[in-house]
TrEMBL record, chain A:
UniProt xrefs under CDD domains: TM_ABC_iron-siderophores_like (cd06550)
InterPro entries given in the database record: ABC_BtuC-like, ABC_transptr_permease_BtuC
Name by which UniProt lists this protein: Iron chelate uptake ABC transporter family permease subunit
PANTHER family: FERRIC ENTEROBACTIN TRANSPORT SYSTEM PERMEASE PROTEIN (PTHR30472), PETROBACTIN IMPORT SYSTEM PERMEASE PROTEIN YCLO (PTHR30472:SF19)
UniProtKB keywords: Cell membrane, Membrane, Transmembrane, Transmembrane helix, Transport
Annotated TM spans: 7-26, 38-58, 70-89, 101-122, 129-154, 174-193, 263-283, 289-310
SUPFAM superfamilies: ABC transporter involved in vitamin B12 uptake, BtuC
Recorded family membership: Belongs to the binding-protein-dependent transport system permease family. FecCD subfamily.
Localization terms from the record: Cell membrane
């Protein structure tokens, strides 16, 4: 199959799932249902795009196919923010109940965290990218421990409210926020277009990229900021989706069988949309909302990850 | 011409390169020799901007490299490091086509593909051009990487231990190609090399480094002598002339 054909097939499949999602069992009050579903699908597609896009870029920059951008601790930061709000202000405080306010706070703090980490790491000259990741992992663990500690101190009934935030869910996404997220994501996407031409060369590794005239350090820094922005947007909107990126990026490599990002990125994005919309369909139609999409993604993603490790081990 | 002036590099508190000054003439093969840890690869990496220098200048055609755009430098100077592990799976042809990146930013024109075909032909890789790199031997891989550098078509070609892990046949093959690059295409080749006999037989100019300093430089005949090599390697090395080539016999008798 040619690469273009693969993209067309994926697009059609994604479109089919979206239409299924919008129109299955619409019921008598279809105007209201359709509008709600349209907003939901908009949020799902945006999340899918952000996560797939940032994971592929991240894996190219790090030259490693089993890392996800969450390794720099953004997920842990999200959890800590939510937990700290509940602990300090209680579960009925505006900061948690008001989605807009909560979104803005979360997005701002996650970006501040990421930029601060980058700034500290890149201020010192000659640091290797992996050192940044190592610091990220340690910070992530630290934030995770703080979160667990705070959760122990929280009143059990308040903890239940918090628990609802710990898994990604599209069931309570606000239309207004989705629009804001789209604006941010499109702006970031336009910015990325200037760097897109370098991606294939960067995937060869630093030495080759520099040799081929890529302004490596500057480009990598900009890409890392793009990654942090997209992950923050997606996480602040729906909650943490750890495995999705890893899953869809690797399925995209397997399916597209190319090194060219002009095809890899759209492929990963479409697979991501298929996984999320398909997952959400299963959540709504099979489990009738008794579980969240992240549970399903984590289950499938976890099994796939084990398979990847075992296969790497064999070869 | 490449000029290096008072170049220094420290790793922690250790001086890896200390106040090195050099001139590298056009149209010649220049070899960097010296014991392990002498700073040969570090020097090569700094000349090719892969590594930041702590002090000093590197001038290519009288222009300091840190003031040049990386894109423009990629059309003037190319570097191949000794380990080329990649996380992407490429065919030989795909790899070689990356050599045209500085000119076309990934959108190759018909002219770019002509250069790619020529480079593949130059390294005699036509038969295996659609094979993946991980299906090929070390020698074939090395030829593919050199083909990429040839497609890049730069005046200066820098290679860090191009003979690493190759047998004699492949080593000779690579050195002959480098010789042809200089003699036929007028390129300037700079290599880091461990086997002093290869340096002696194929290079025009030799720079001997030790403990981060240039201790001798000159035409091949001036460097491949018992006295100079004693100073570089702390070994008594006997020199025999065979078919006009100076051969070093460094085995203890």
């Amino acid at each position: 199959m040619k690469l273009r054909t693969k993209i067309v097939v994926l697009s059609l499949f994604a479109l089919l799932l979206i239409l299924l999602f919008l129109f299955i069992g619409l019921g008598s009050n279809w105007g209201y249902s359709l509008e709600r579903r349209a907003w939901k699908i908009a949020a799902i597609v945006l999340t899918g795009v952000c996560i797939a896009f940032s994971t592929v870029i991240f894996q190219t920059v790090t030259n490693n196919r089993i890392l996800t951008p969450n390794i720099i601790g953004l997920d842990s930061m999200y959890m800590l923010i939510q937990t700290a709000v509940v602990y300090v202000f209680g579960s009925t405080n505006k900061l948690l109940v008001d989605s807009n306010l909560n979104f803005m706070l979360t997005l701002a703090l996650m970006m501040v965290f990421a930029l601060l980490l980058y700034w500290v790491m890149f201020r010192r000259e000659g640091n290797h990218l992996y050192f940044l990741l190592l610091v990220g992992i340690i910070l992530g663990t630290l934030l995770g421990s703080m979160t667990t500690f705070l959760q122990l101190l929280i009143d059990p009934s308040e903890f239940l409210v918090l628990q609802g935030r710990m898994f990604a869910s599209f069931n309570s996404v606000q239309g207004q926020l989705t629009v804001i997220c789209y604006i941010v994501a499109i702006a970031v996407g336009l910015y990325y277009m200037r760097l897109h031409k370098y991606m294939d060369a960067i995937s060869l590794g630093k030495g080759h990229a520099v040799n081929l005239g890529v302004p490596y350090d500057a480009v990598v820094k900009q890409l890392l900021v793009i990654i942090a922005a997209l992950i923050s947007v997606a996480t602040a909107l729906v909650g943490p989706l750890t495995f999705l990126g890893l899953l869809v990026a690797n399925v995209a490599y397997q399916f597209m069988k190319t090194y060219r990002h002009a095809y890899l990125i759209p492929g990963a994005i479409l697979i991501s949309i298929i996984a999320l919309v398909g997952g959400q369909l299963i959540v709504e139609r099979v489990f009738s909302f008794t579980t969240t999409v992240s549970v399903i993604i984590n289950l499938v993603g976890g099994i796939y990850f084990l398979y990847l490790l075992l296969r790497e081990n064999k070869s | 011409m490449i000029e290096v002036k008072h170049l220094s590099k420290k790793y922690g508190s250790k001086n890896v390169i200390e106040d090195v000054s050099l001139r590298i003439e056009k149209g010649k093969i220049t070899s960097f020799i010296g014991p392990n840890g002498a700073g040969k690869s570090t020097l090569l990496s700094m000349i090719s901007r892969l590594l930041k220098k702590d002090a000093g200048e590197v001038l290519i055609e009288s222009k300091e490299i840190s003031t040049c755009k990386s894109e423009d430098l990629a059309k003037q100077i190319s570097i191949l490091k000794q380990s080329n592990q990649m996380s992407v799976r490429l065919t030989v042809r795909e790899l070689v086509s990356f050599g045209r990146f500085p000119y076309s930013q990934g959108r190759l024109t018909a002219e770019d593909w002509k250069y790619v075909d020529e480079a593949i032909a130059y390294m005699e890789l036509q038969e295996m051009q659609d094979k993946y790199l991980d299906q090929l031997s070390g020698g074939q891989n090395q030829r593919a990487y050199i083909a990429m550098v040839i497609a890049q078509n730069t005046e200066y070609v820098l290679l860090d231990e191009p003979l690493n892990n190759l047998d004699m046949r492949h080593s000779v093959q690579i050195m002959k190609v480098l010789r042809r690059l200089v003699d036929e295409l007028g390129k300037t080749v700079i290599i880091v090399i461990h086997d002093i006999n290869f340096a002696s037989c194929y290079s025009d100019y030799i720079v001997a480094l030790k403990d981060g300093k240039v201790i001798k430089e000159g035409a091949t005949e001036q460097i491949i002598t018992t006295e100079v090599l004693k100073e570089v390697y702390d070994m008594d090395i006997q020199i025999e002339t065979i078919n006009g080539n100076r051969i070093c016999v460094y085995f203890d008798s």
